[in-house]
Design a protein that fits this description.
4-stranded antiparallel β-sheet; 18 strands; about 30% helix; globular
Length: about 425
Amino acid sequence: MTAKPIILYQQTPLIHFQGTQRGATLRASEVKPKLDRWLKAKLESSEEGKEKLKRWSFDENSPTALNYRLRIVAKGENLLEEWKRESIRSGFPNFFAELGDDPLPQHNYRVFTLHEQLALIIESPHDDLIQKIKAEVMLFFHATNFGSRVSKGFGSFLPAGPIPNNYAFAFFVPERKHNYKSLFRHIEILHRSIRTGLNCFKDFSDGYNESFYQKPLIFEYARTESLVWEKKVYKEKHGANEGFGMLARDLKDYENGLTPKEHWPLWYNEKAGARAKATVRDALGLSTNQSWGKYPFEVKKESERIKRAPSPFTFVPVKLAGGFGVYVYARQPEAVFLNHSFKVSMTYRNGGDKELQLKPFPGFQMRTFLQDYFKAERVASMIRIKRRNLDLPIKKKLLQTYSMIEQSLDRHEGEIPLLP
């Protein structure tokens, strides 16, 4: 049976590895495995659902792929035709692949494609499977992006209809001309304020100002859980008298309680049993390689069991009148990952290395993080502006965004919904 095509409306550009080819768009070979996993997650919780999975699978003894076929046809031309002539540069917000200023070989180009409409065609010998797909397609596409950089909002395709209520929180980006660079800059700054912090940002444009600084929300959560921010771990492992001076304070100040615990040197924390080390920000997506310009070393994290852990957040932009609604879906990171010890190597540019064993964030709870820390008042208390009476636009816009997020989170009568 072939179902009536489902029309998908593309909301944001797709980063496509074959984007220079005519008609390049969302690929069925990418959609089907994700849709299979979505359907299985919905059905595996009941015996009836498990029986359906067996019947709908190509192989009843190994229900890994469901017996249906997808075809996707783009309607019209690529609306970003002029973007096809260049590779995506690293300066575009939220995309930082290995693309420099030099032209890349044609087969390595990753370019944007954007079509107003696509037709999704489903074929299957199981009529009830087609009906199940049609029943789930709205929820599935609203929580799933495609192509590269999917967690940051690229490759959003949505059927017509009301927005499902299974997102964690939402906010609005005013942008009358639907400028995508402005949208992704907004998402980039918000994500940094959550995971890595903001430093020297002037506005939601490309400008910078050395007066603005904000510690990330995950730092504040870790601090209240008595976990040490990993950059402090690396600096102190590097050593007291080799450029950072982190251990040169008077020990009596710590023992007498004159210095807050979050500023205690790690060697004293360990002696007092006060706090634990962790690669805190990795709870929001594993960074296997890290470097900072002023540090004389690079950090690499390795494990035989865990090679990657994606961001638990997925930003899904939707074009609305006057701008974009951004709906954010969240997952609870797996406990196996949060409690796993990684080999962390500090490799020096002039030779030599040092090693640690660190876990990401034992005990991290996504719902606690969202409920207790995504608040405009808390964010405002974490912002530092070095010059007095300087009203930076980024502060105003950031706090407006968090006010919208806070209101969105408050709409939940029960628990904040999380994706499986």
